[in-house]
Amino acid sequence: MNRGIILRYMIREILGLITMGVALFWSAGRLNWWPAWAALGIMTAWIAATAAVILHHNPALLAERLGPRRGAKRWDIAIMSLLGLTQLTRYILAGLDVRYGWSTGSALPAQFIALGVGGLGYALVVWATAVNAFFSQIMRIQTERGQIVVNCGPYHWVRHPAYLGAILFELAMPALFASGWVLIPSGLGVLLLILRTALEDRTLQAELPGYADYARQVRQRLLPGLW
Which residues have C-beta within 8 Å of that of residue 45, sequence separation ≥ 6? Predict the structure, then answer.
């Protein structure tokens, strides 16, 4: 594996963590705020685990994930840009809420449950990444990499397990930060992920050979028994 690619990947992810930390602690006006450290811990663990499974199982995926390639869907670039903006807004709002006491807060057990749900969500994302050699960050059909349908691991039960994991994280954040205001950007994030699921699934059925047959076998996009 090219060391330059690994270095670029590390720099990008570290900058993302720094941005998240600045948004949380600058808006809160203090560092002694354990939910913020917990959220950063989940993200750090996810980044480290993702890098580990990619390097171990699918090293070629690292270069793929560093940026859009030919055929990247413009609608997905727009959705991911909006999703990033909602996430940044969430962290700023959470910090401002804890600084000014806008919300009444939630019980400590609820925060710990939310922490577990958020961690479980990103564990599901890592699992999906480990078994899917074509898990790009921007939707495109990777013809030059010989993309095929993946139906093992969590893909045996739902067609988009990583989005389910990301939605669990989004839903957990308002309770973890004990902030009603965080419900707004997190709710928008959930809607964007559902929209992305629908558009990506439609694209895969139209453009990826074998996916329509897979969709008939695994009928649920996100939630077993529901959708």
Answer: 119, 122
Structure pTM? 0.93
- Per domain, the residue ranges of the chain are 3-217
At 161-199, the pLDDT tens digits run 999 999 999 999 999 999 999 999 999 999 999 999 999
Domain at 3-217, CATH class: mainly alpha
Q: Which amino acid is at 187?
A: G
Q: Is 220 exposed, middle or buried (0-12, 13-18, 19+ CB in 10 A)?
A: middle
Residues 201, 159: contact at Cβ < 8 Å?
yes
Q: How many residues are given for the chain?
A: 227
Positive or negative torsion for Cα 191, 215, 204, 58: positive
Q: Residue 204 and residue 43: Cα distance in Å, rounded?
A: 28
Lookup: tokens for 53: 């499974």
